[in-house]
Amino acid sequence: MVRWRRGTVLSVSRRWGGTVELLVAVGADGAAADQQVTPVRALAFPELVGEPAVDDEVLLTTGALERGLGTGGYAMVAALPGRLPDQPRADGGHLVKARYTPLQAMVLGADEQGSPHHELLREADDLAGMPVVVADLHSALPAIVAGLRTVAPDAAVAYVMTDGGALPAWFSRTVDELRAAGWIRGCVSVGQAFGGDLEAVTVHTGLLAARLVLGADVAVVAQGPGNLGTGTRWGFSGVAAGEALNATTVLGGRPVASLRVSEADERERHLGVSHHSLTAYGRVALAPSDVVVPRLHGELGERVRAQAALLAPPVGRHRLVEVDCTGLVDALRACPVRLSTMGRGLDDDTASFLASAAAGVHAAALLS
User: Residue 298 is part of which domain span?
Assistant: First the structure.
């Protein structure tokens, strides 16, 4: 359950988006003396808890930090008990995210009645053929956009962030840096996720808001950082990737499936094409989609092609689209954000990023 600690802010390290990184001296009631001064990195979201400052007492949750989870290398500031934030504006909307948790947040949804976009979205039902690239991992986002820009550098791209990983979009430095570089027009957080440039109730209204409000030519749908997997066939948060392809088809978009590929993962189930992609696209996605297969060389290339073939007739229902990866490594190196997937960089697992970039190339080709 929740692991609580008290702490004192030692320094404010850096800021991005709606996030502040802190160094906090941590203690807890009944803790040993040497634990009272343990410094840890902590994250605060000022929109939720107020603006932290040096010497503030903070109340922290530390479960993910203590378990050593991949994207949980932080304590999380749950409150500044000595200095509560100002009351939010009365016109802040009525969509409740992280419902019935102590930090449930109320936001203004692009699709709700009080929104200036409500009339635009009220009867909206058509993406007008907009390509939508769906990926399992958040780390695919910058690589997809890098590939897309090699073909259509001026295309407007929106990111639709689902709630399988992080809930606050503020947590993602990738989103913040891609937006600052002009590589994405904005982020729409959907479901229980929040903190995007726009909020929406579902993937469906998130996609419509990306198209009609942000003016996107292409949308990328993926969960935020912090995906969850259990090593079982169905117990992973990326199952939602298949549902996103269904939503795209229902709304008249062009669904493009980006394969999760690895040449370096030590787990057999993720080598070549991950079982996450094979399950989400092969079993969950019911509408035919374009599955992009990167043209890789050697044994890895043969393995990826053989695995992807399971998604096409006569076994599956999708269209396989093979994409040449020539020049994509250089495009990936020019990306304005650090590329990292499951702790591996571009040189450690090049195939992973090439597969994502190839999906972006194909989506760009659909614009012509």
Answer: 118-365
